[in-house]
User: Fold this.
Amino acid sequence: MFLSQYTYKVDNKGRISVPADFRIGINTKFFNGIIAFRSYKFRAIEALDFEKMKKIADSLDDLDFFSETKNDITTSILSDSYKLPFDSEGRVCLPIELLNFAGIKTQATFVGRGSSFQIWNPKAFKDYLQNARKNIKKKKIIFNN
Assistant:
């Protein structure tokens, strides 16, 4: 499970360390790294392990092979995904397309989201988090046990 948030430096080659807590939660049975793609809701990078992406791809098989929905989703997510292997220091190299999309330059914030995580521009995430907390207060959302 991916929890918390961490901000790390991005070097001039796009390499960044994946938080150790996150690396522990990544199933590396089939691929020693992460799968990353552009978020469709935020100006951020979505990231998950190979097993989670395989589950998503397998669930798409349940859709009608010729449906427009299946074609849109598979094209939008699967063709836009990058397999990013860990190097010997636990870093991945984020493609320039993803960095530009998320507005990430010198630092990035990893944000735990349970079974996946996101990578954000630190200021953009700080602003989003502040608004999200305001929305929760405004809607008086209460978490019951």
